[in-house]
Amino acid sequence: MIRAYLFALDPTEAQADAMASHCGATRVAYNWCLARVKANWSQRAAEQTYGLTGDQLTPWMATSAYGLRKAWNAAKNEVAPWWKQNSKEAYASGCANLAAALANRTAGRAKMPRFKSKRTARMSCKFTTGQFGLVRDRRHVQLPVIGVVRTSESTRKLARKIEAGTARIRSATLSYQRGRWHVSFSVDLPDTEPAERTGGRVVGVDLGISHLATLSTGEQVQNQRRLDAELRNLRRAERACARRLGPDRRTGVAPSNRWKKARARADRIHTRVANLRRDDTHQFTTRLVREFDTIVIEDLHVAGMLRNRRLARHIAGVSWGQIRRQLTYKTERAGVRLVVADRWFASSKTCSECGTAKAKLPLNERVFACLACGIVLDRDENAARNLAALAVDTGELRRELPDGSDVRRACSHAPQSHRHGKSPTGLNATTAR
Known about the structure:
Elements: E1 2-8, H1 13-49, H2 65-79, H3 88-106, E2 124-127, E3 133-134, E4 140-143, E5 147-150, H4 156-163, E6 168-177, E7 180-188, E8 202-207, E9 211-215, E10 220-222, H5 226-243, H6 257-291, E11 294-298, H7 302-305, H8 312-318, H9 320-334, E12 337-341, E13 367-369, E14 376-378, H10 379-393, H11 429-432
Parallel strand pairs: 8-11, 11-12
Antiparallel strand pairs: 1-7, 2-6, 3-4, 4-5, 6-7, 8-9, 9-10, 13-14
Helix pairs in contact: 1-3, 2-3, 5-6, 6-9
């Protein structure tokens, strides 16, 4: 089993410059290899227009990590005479990244890779060989060429596993994210088969905006609204940036020192909001995995919901995609069963007591009242109960389908692009604000 351990770093100015240089070297090698590959393909295409075929054409350039690295090593003295300032792994990382991108294009998983910009590309560099790892004091890490760098937190959790012989560091990835330098160690751990839970603790989770989630047990998890709490300070910080002299690529104007300080204040607010939101999501998903044996969630089309300009900020603030991603790997490790309801399953329109489905259910109706059995309960709790029932009904709930309703069977394979889709539970424009 391979897991990643991420640590924030507190480098000196000289170490930060060396880190930026390594990440820049990765980008240079990536762009140079990409230019060579495109030139090779364009040359072959031009030769084919003249009627050349077979061996008459220019040979294909190797696009494997080894082939790209070999081509880079042959030309690095001319392309980058300063290459000795950085570790050779920085250039190998750029070649490997391009090889993976081209492989994804060949497999149809991605489009043709593009050149990385110095201003917008994320800075990262991977080390697979050389002297890297933890230092015995558990407050520093070792990186090739860069040296010993202090961490902002203790590395004891990983150090104890390494000292016990149950973990082995495979690689280290240096990156600049959320306004700080980080190092991520890829660690090889022994494979453990989690004991499958056989208990009957089942919960349906209906995600929303007014509340982060409503469980089938009746509990409502509060939405902390981390961004809304800092929105006033964030707007003030962004206005301060707008009043300063910022960078201009068209005229070549360099940013002023006051702009850099104002930009740093705004970035710190963004980082704080992201960290708090990530912590809330981890605490919620971890509690679900610990307390229940079967978890049922919805397959929400989050990307489509974000097109709603009135609710986009609120939808992005609850991190529905992160909740599903974390539940996926946490349930797998803990032996918990995770059931994902079909995107067309009408959990909000279906009565959780008798199974009768309503033809229409506007978003402003926050109470579900069934005309058949007379049950009255919260709309989100009714949807969560229907989701929990999928754990035993395997995707088919007993219900009536009235004429003109948009309700579909939970197991139907409907296309993702639709005109009348199920409304996401909990999306209430009046309560979201």
